Amino acid sequence: MAADLTLDVLEPAHVVLSIAVAQGDGLAVNDELIVEIDGKHAEVTELTDHHGSRLHTIDATPGRMKVRYSAEADGRSEPPPFRDFDGILYLRPSRYCDSDTLYPTAQAEFVGLKGHDLLAAVSSWVGTRLEYIPGSSQPTDGAVQTLLSRRGVCRDYAHLSVALLRACDIPARLVSAYAPGLDPMDFHAVCEAYVDGHWYAIDATALAPRQSLLRIATGRDASDVAFVTTQHGHVLLDAMEVRAVVDALPKDDITGLVELG
After folding, report:
1. Which CA distances in Å does 5 have to 189, 207, 236, 238?
2. What is this structure's pTM?
3. Where are the domains of the chain?
4. Percent of the chain having pLDDT more than 90?
5. Which range (76-80, 111-115, 229-233) has the least confidence?
6. Residue 109: exposed, middle, or buried by beta-carbon count in 10 A (0-12, 13-18, 19+)?
7. Does residue 184 have a cis bond before it (omega within 30 degrees)?
8. Are the beta carbons of 55 and 67 closer than 8 angstroms?
9. Of 8, 81, 209, 249, which residue has the fewest beta carbons closer than 10 angstroms?
10. For the structural domain made of 2-76+229-243, what CATH number should be given?
11. Measured between alpha carbons, how far is 45 from 56 in angstroms, rounded to an integer?
């Protein structure tokens, strides 16, 4: 797995990166992160949340910032444990997953469905109602706007899936991931839903096998898992390249249940 970012820092800024493979029991990760500004080494501080998401912060001075991340992973991580607080947090509406507004739609479309049948129905419903068009959505679009426009990219599909599941009383959250087999290659976003004691991955785009997804970050929606966040300054993303490969790319039965590592 690898990611190369080029950013223009126009004024002093606090930059937060979320591009590193998440920590997890059972997964061995050998990785390296290098950050330079105008060719000079920049100090990086790592923070880890309760999901194992790793955030890297930089107090960036004006200049050309180059970010290079590479990782080799072996094994399979245990999913982050379910906490009682998750049952509250991931049922609430959030910035991009306006489940309260979509409640009537969810109740009308999925009445009587529960558990695994509900997950399959939501995935199929979202996948057949949206058209995947790169660049068709705005960074501020939420689930309702995605449904109205009937198009989007992976984060839009995931937001709509999360919102509909929350409206059906299923805890659901967003996961950013490296996705071998994805075309066009990029950071990927999927929904993760909690049913019968397990977090299952829902990817209505069906663009990459869920079995080979490698978790980066986990949160309520894209505001929690953004690969770059700028605080107290002005930074522009100029270029980005993401690479993800696996020894053997699995086939994914989209009707099956898959737990992410």
Report:
1. 18, 23, 11, 8
2. 0.95
3. 2-76+229-243, 86-214
4. 90
5. 76-80
6. middle
7. yes
8. no
9. 81
10. 2.60.40
11. 5
pLDDT(80) > 80: no
What six digits make up the tokens of 230? Answer: 């700028």
Dihedrals phi, psi of 31, to nearest 5 degrees: -135, 170
Q: Average of pLDDT values for 34-59?
A: 96
Nearest Cα neighbor of 225 from 168, 176, 160 is 176
Write out the two tokens for 31: 């990785």
Task: Name the nearest CA neighbour of 52 among 94, 15, 81, 10.
Answer: 81
CATH of domain 86-214: 3.10.620.30
How many angstroms from the chain centroid is the CA of residue 80?
Answer: 15
Beta bridge partners of 178: 214
What's the CA gap between 54 and 45, in Å, rounded? 10
pLDDT at 261: 74
